[in-house]
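# nightly structure sweep
# worker-07 picked up a monomer target from the shared queue
# config: single-sequence mode, recycle default, output format = structure tokens
# input follows
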Amino acid sequence: MSRGRAVVILCVLFGVLWAITTYADTASDIKAQIDASAQQIAQLKTEIALLQTELNSASEQKQTLQTAVKALDLNIQKITKNISLTNAQITQKDKEISSLSGSITTTVGNIGARKKEIADSLRELELLDAQPIVVALIGGATLSELFDKAATLERVRTGLQNHVYELSSLKVSYETDKNIAEKKRKELDNLKTNLNQEKQGLAIAREAQNQLLTETKNKESTYQAQIAKKQAEEIKFEQDLLNFESQLNLLVNPGSFAAAQAGILMWPLDSVHITQYFGNTDFSTQNPQIYNGKGHNAIDLRASPGTLVRSARGGVVRGAGNTDLTCPGASYGKWVFIDHDNGLSTIYAHLATYLVGQGEKVSQGQVIGYSDTTGYSTGPHLHFGVYASAGAKITSFPSISCKGKVYTMPVADLSAYLNPLSYLPTLL
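# output follows
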């Protein structure tokens, strides 16, 4: 071997060793960063859980301006922590994808090397097989030479089989890493979407706090007067609605909608706490002036301003609107009404804003709006109702409480209201 060729080979070997060492160092650094992100994520989750506990406690206290402001402040802190958590998860996912990319690059290089080794082995086999043993004997080859040739042939064939096996394993590893990387890229896209939604929720929460302080001028008496006014408006509206719905006479065929079964619908909130049940609950029984003895026609779920509200099932938006434009503080406020594929419809009310419109298709779990206290809500919550679709419609009817005004909103025959808990997953 010439000296120049030896130098070239040494340089190539040094380059390969340097690349392997560099990749190992990079992979080690990335793993350390992933571990650090995991610790940060765990810490943030603990802090968010503590804030949620405080928020739940504040929400259950007597309804005063002080507790309302405290609850809003805790909610802002929690959403801010959620944003930090999502940012940390995005960083972690980026590092995981980088690690997989490095692994995939290395595997692709190894696949190329195995392919070259297989090609070299095939060429060597071709040369060894070019002269049959009988021809070699006639040509004067000794038995020792023939045995050496046979041994070499067997070695090359065994090496070829090993290279083929290694190539197959590398391809499996490549496909596995590639699929995992694609899955993590989708997870990363979802996290970025969540981040944007959480930022919108934070803006809504801050606006709710500012609005409360502005409207009440930080006075307890003003706050209590606001609540009393909303309760009075609610009584008038419930009477308007009952009078109108009692005359609808919409036919509801029992076979036209899904039979009761847990899990047909998903919970519209990520964290579930029921504050008011369906039917003749203690609250509705104690307040017949509000519910007219008919019971509560939906369930109420605790939801701080800016909480993400999701579609309980895939479907088509029949309508969305804002009753506060007709009679402020008297009805659903901002609402979304969705028809599903099983004869059921759902309503989501007291929203801060909605993100979908009439005729739009939505998927299960899609964010359709953010919660708030619009309409006759005296505290932050989501009003979630389920209907037999055939017995419900969006229509207009005159308001008695706000004379000269006309509501446009979902209404239903009294027989069309269904208990949401008959269709939602069972709470553990």
